[in-house]
Amino acid sequence: MMKTVTINQQTMPAVGIGTWHMGDSAASHKDEVAAIQAAINAGAVAIDTAEMYGNGRSERLVGEAIHPFDRQQLFLIDKVLPSNASHARLEQSLDRSLNLVGTDYFDLYLLHWRSGTIPLAETVDELERMQAKGKIKSWGVSNFDTSDLEELWQLPAGDHCAANEDLYNLDERGIEFDLIPWQAHHQLPLIAYSPLAEADTISGQLSHNKLLKELASNHHASVYQVMLAWTIRNGNVLTIPKAGQVQHALDNVKAGEITFSEDELAALTQAFPKPKRKQSLAII
């Protein structure tokens, strides 16, 4: 049975589509469009992009890929750069992204990371204004740690935040110490970025890990599907792997059907330990 997640009262499959590093190459363009479309046809609903990704090239790719589909059946996520997250620039930035994707609204619009100069309150005010205008259905944040969310919740509309997107994979479990519990307590969904793409380089070829290969065999799956399924094992998480090929995209979506036993989860925790202390937020 496909695992699901609910964001802004909309329930969808817990495996979505990430598009970081997509749209940059003419040689791979056709394959990338086909991969996104294959994932949608297989049941994926959420598509994550950002104005930063290829300076709009990812957004344009998403727009092309979703063109044949019913827009209302999709959950589109975009992100504004912190340098554009001001009263003066956010709406202009949002309009540019909407135009590139070819849609009238985003289901979720995220502050990509905190600005060092623009007050968080100013950004929240502007996000609220965009939601009131109907250009976004909800808003959230990305690369926020627990202290950032606590500060956000102190703002008048801060708790309107619909999701937080952070790096999360088997090799980067730091947010489990206090951030994931905080979000669970406040019923704030997590969007897990780079659940696969960076994992091999971080830990040194996780694809050859003995335990992961054993679990993959147990579930008639690939190591990558096991890694992906692990990120959504507890619910309240949308995971957004990238796929540039059709078969990879189909495999990603199917990973949402994997359920681990308690023994398997215990073995994974032994091999990839939970954090025992607070760690700096991992960002790539």
TrEMBL record:
Classification lineage: Bacteria, Bacillati, Bacillota, Bacilli, Lactobacillales
Name of this protein: Oxidoreductase
Marked site (Lowers pKa of active site Tyr) residue numbers: 79
Signal peptide: none
Any GO MF annotation of the entry: oxidoreductase activity
Superkingdom as given in the UniProt entry: Bacteria
Active site: 53
A Pfam short name: Aldo_ket_red
Residues that coordinate or bind substrate: 112
PANTHER family for the chain: ALDEHYDE REDUCTASE (PTHR43638:SF3), OXIDOREDUCTASE, ALDO/KETO REDUCTASE FAMILY PROTEIN (PTHR43638)
Boundaries of every NADP-dependent oxidoreductase domain copy: 15-270
Organism: Limosilactobacillus secaliphilus
Gene3D superfamilies recorded: NADP-dependent oxidoreductase domain
InterPro entries: AKR (IPR020471), NAD(P)_OxRdtase_dom_sf (IPR036812), NADP_OxRdtase_dom (IPR023210)
